[in-house]
Amino acid sequence: MAAGRRREVGRRLRRRFLVFSSFLSSLLLGESHAVGHRCWRWGWRWRWKVTCLGQCNVLFYRRLLQSATESATSRHAARDMNKSFADFEGRPSSAGRSGAAESNSIAQKFGFKKISEEVIDECKSTAVLYEHLKIGAEIMSLTNDNENKVFGIVFQTPPKDSTGIPHILEHSVLCGSKKYPLKEPFVELLKSSLHTFLNAFTYPDRTCFLVASTNLKNFYNLVDVYLDAVFFPKCVEDFQTFQQEGWHYELNDPSEEISFKGVVLNEMKGVYLEPDNILGRVCQQVTHSQKLLLSYRTHKYYHPSNAKIWFYGDDDSNECFRILSAYLDQYDKSPVSNESRIEPQKLFLTPVRVIVKYPTLDLETELALCFLDHLLLGTPASPLRRILLESRLRDAIVGNGVEDELLQPQFSTRLKGVSEDDVQKVEELIMSTLKNLAAEGFGSEAVDLENNTGSFPRGLSLMLRSIIVAEGSKAVFCPLIEKLILNNAHCVTIEMQPDPNKESQDKAVERQILEKVKSSMTQEDLVELVCGTRELRLRQETPDPPEALKFNGVKVLQHDLFTNDVLYLEVVFDLCHLRQDLLQLIPLFCQSLLEMGTRDLDFVQLNQLVGRKTGGISIYPFTSSVREKADPCFHVIVHGKAMGERVEDLFSLIRCILQDVQFTDQQRFEQLVSQSKAGMESCLRGSGDAIAATRMDAKLNAARWISEQLGEISYLEFLRDLEKRVDKEWPAISSSLDAIRSCLLSREGCIVNMTADGKILTESSKYLAEFIDAIPSVPSPGTTTWSSLLSPMKEAIVVNYVGKAANIYEAGYQLHGNSYLWDRIQVSGGAYSTYSTLDTDSGVFSDMSSRDLNLLKTVDVYDATANFLRELELDDNTLTKAIIKAIGDVDPYQLPKAKGYSSLMRHLLGITEEERQIRHEEILSTSMKHFREFADAIEVVKDKGVVVAVASIDDVAKANEEKGGFFKVKKVL
């Protein structure tokens, strides 16, 4: 990501390291004190400050001897995963992830095999290494009670040259994916998710994607976003993303000069403008050929066979494996991990290139090197650092030490402000100091200081101390200096000398390149480049929200989202003018449209055709209160989906279903009535709280009254009666179904909602216009007034669920300013009641509980809610955590289909983006004052609330005995 942010992360976090050996059943946590700056860009390794003119700068660099090992790669991957998280307090969790045996069983269920397991006291975690059986991907799971859950995935991405393609690809895969097709989902996550860490970065040899969150749901969402980004990025099919993130020519007018543009290009130009960077190549190398970039678009290294995956924290292993398997199972094993393997650089016996092989560093040696690094340079009193500071041969030490995060560790000492005449003196001083230390060793005080300062966790300190006690510090550290530094011919010294003309020369070279490019273009090429520049800029500046269009008087909402060549369609018909006597036939009308035939097709043939040509068609009623309006909205929604090549079939079949289905099959209709009745009876047995909630609301609110008539107890009673009447009254019933269709099919109030890729939306316009033209334009007969409500009497429906509700708007309460009260109550964690709901459109506030042993006591608890809120005290920390949770729950993660549908719902209910923003701001401004205000508002529930209990006969009888005739009994089942 941005160079400044990444440098800051590096400065702040690089002192944490993880020694990780996945193939050896040992994983230890510790800390490294290597000081210095690093730039993870295109294979470059060093970053340090140079500001003085007239002086040269020296980097003394030696590469430590290490050959390639699989364990080193695993250690590096794990270290990347964990380098950003310093809080390892806790214990191996028994309440978070599943136990060992259960986890292994879960892993096998999802296709993973446990390789090794070990409890690690240093980080109070249980580490388990898994392998995905199908493709061989390795997953390290570190389970503990840390709520800051971490996920990371690392790919080996060795660069083929210095053009920066791995870096460009890292940016590009985060610019939208199959499931998350926004232009910049990474930016949206930064702005809106509950992450504690969110980033990606490119090393010289690998690319890492890391996320962390304390919120479980948000954490899994972040994991899913990242997995979809790396495995199914939009960029592989969208060259403009590579142009935007990498580089492109920009030309606004043929008469103007061409310029370079691009995120990574500008980022790296900024990095290499600083004279303290090693300019081993010219910046123009990022502007590689499009052919080269296109060849990398296969992002072949982003394959799970080439990945190391990491989970850390108290999350559920079952969900981790489920999410991973959903992605990994889509792949077959690939040899790409062999292709991406990084072989050690061939080592020099002398500055001349002579090859020599050295043994691999073992874990003990690597730990000792980290210890040695601190002894040499970790404090101002460390001998090498002290001598360099006292030498006056430099302005400052700007970076140094052991850097062990790549395949081959290296040791370097970097100074700035060194006079050109003193370069040789600096190198000689470094070497002579190291020779003295190799001969004499370190004082016991320095070793003890390192053991006791907490630089290493207790376990590592004990391990190293045992080695030192057994062999002596001189025996441990002096041979390392001798062998790995002094006698290591694989060494380079780099001088950087300031040049006041360098920047202008670089700009001149770049201008020459651009002039050459432009002179080679024809006039047609220039015009095409101008058009391309404008097209890219338009794309970059176009916001994501849907656009509303008009087709022959019908409003059309379009959502340009990546849907993998699928069109999601909703056609909404207004039923606000339906006769009330036809209301309860609406669910059966919707079923009949899909389960009766036409003149030419019986219902089986019609359903087979729908299944072959589309992804499915459904029809259902929708009703809701609309804030500040007396009448509810009432619609029938036709939903369908189809692949882009089947869009014409989708519109044709929906038209056929709506207009050609015949309501003449009495036998089929009788079957639908019987099936609906049986389904309602089954549903009511298991949904007592929903029954009670809807029944209460139906006594207070017209929209909920309609819902209750169409899907609750009243509807069940209607079905029972209808079942008896069908045979005698079929002609009238059939005629009623046709009357509903005549009322339904009108352009008046019709809305079409479409979610798909822009190309599909454009191609669908012709079929959409034909579909709308086939809908009659019937004047509205006027809006029906839905005046009926259920009786406000207290009911006991013979399962103990009990609820109480009232309309707080009718009592004078308003949602405004800093008093968005449902969000306030949600923030409080559902205080006092089992759960509470507020329909913010109608104002109905409800308390609900389930399986109560004493119905009247529960009602008393509800009545005391206002006093409870007045007396409630929450500390700032608890309130802040609750606010964070509420914010995270306001806008849950949605697939493109759901995003388009949610936008439609907001449109139907008149909810604006401004109102949604106000809602967020009000949640964030929640204080205890708002709970007090709400307490006054819900007093109306106590005084005027209706009560519904879905309970056993015995419990109702007992309640009526205690409080004479409190409930009116209604037997349903």
Automatic annotation (TrEMBL):
Domain of life: Eukaryota
Domain Peptidase M16C associated, chain residue ranges per copy: 496-722
GO biological process, one term: protein processing
Cellular component per GO, a single term: chloroplast
Gene Ontology MF terms: metal ion binding; metalloendopeptidase activity
The name this protein goes by in its record: Peptidase M16C associated domain-containing protein
Organism: Spirodela intermedia
Upper classification of the organism: Eukaryota, Viridiplantae, Streptophyta, Embryophyta, Tracheophyta
